[in-house]
Description:
Low-confidence stretches: 1-24
Structural class: mainly beta
Mean pLDDT: 85
Order of helices and strands: HEEEEEEEEEEEHEEEEEEHEEEEHEH
Shape: globular
Distance between the termini: 57 Å
Helix content: 10-25%
Radius of gyration: 22 Å
Amino acid sequence: xxxxxxxxxxxxxxxxxxxxxxxxxxxxxxxxxxxxxxxxxxxxxxxxxxxxxxxxxxxxxxxxxxxxxxxxxxxxxxxxxxxxxxxxxxxxxxxxxxxxxxxxxxxxxxxxxxxxxxxxxxxxxxxxxxxxxxxxxxxxxxxxxxxxxxxxxxxxxxxxxxxxxxxxxxxxxxxxxxxxxxxxxxxxxxxxxxxxxxxxxxxxxxxxxxxxxxxxxxxxxxxxxxxxxxxxxxxxxxxxxxxxxxxxxxxxxxxxxxxxxxxxxxxxxxxxxxxxxxxxxxxxxxxxxxxxxxxxxxxxxxxxxxxxxxxxxxxxxxxxxxxxxxxxxxxx
Length: 332
């Protein structure tokens, strides 16, 4: 009995260590002609964007509970891919599949409701499920096809820490969704360093020159109509000094911090990092990530420098960076 009381007291003492965030009434708008989607989302949710194979993926993360040992959020994923595209089956977190797709019927989630309706001219199939045995989370999905693309919205709302309070966000976001005509784009693929990225046809691929022994230039992109050695560009290079030995994401973040990048956010998965900084005239984003895992562990640096007054180029540059893919030989 005494042990039980002490345990309860210990739990009560721990509670203040967690941080609980409330839902904001302010909303932002995501709009990208590269992904072909426009949607609104709460301003206190975090957005992650990536291109995996042929699938454009968005991940919206709610405020949540966190401390050194625990991190729990609600999330909403959006997967956009060509009709008939088969996603990588080994990537269970791709956001392009339902949570229980791989389970037999006796273990699949319980369907709470299943309905079809129209939103902004889109014929949407929506369903809600929960865990069959523990019922710890609510999962909501929405499916539709438009512009020869398949769209899947998938979400998870844990009952833990009252994070299921964000369930209404799903419907509110869904009501704002619009499909845009996708912009014509080109894909740069590099088999030697095993990576690729996609960019709008309104950007051009410039000639490169390697003058530094420490850094091998691989790609230089600039907006159409701008000079190749101008103020607005994206470059990709191999950093020879750090290639050959795999570093953790935290070590890469330290490299960025040493160069004055104050905003550090995740980039891709695993051994990678992304930093952002502004000065009086430019917005600079620098990314490090390892590729060629099976051979040389090449560290690539993707760097964009865009004038602050060039808002359109800033937006396009961030979209281009989000399409970067690596380890193509083993994951595609």
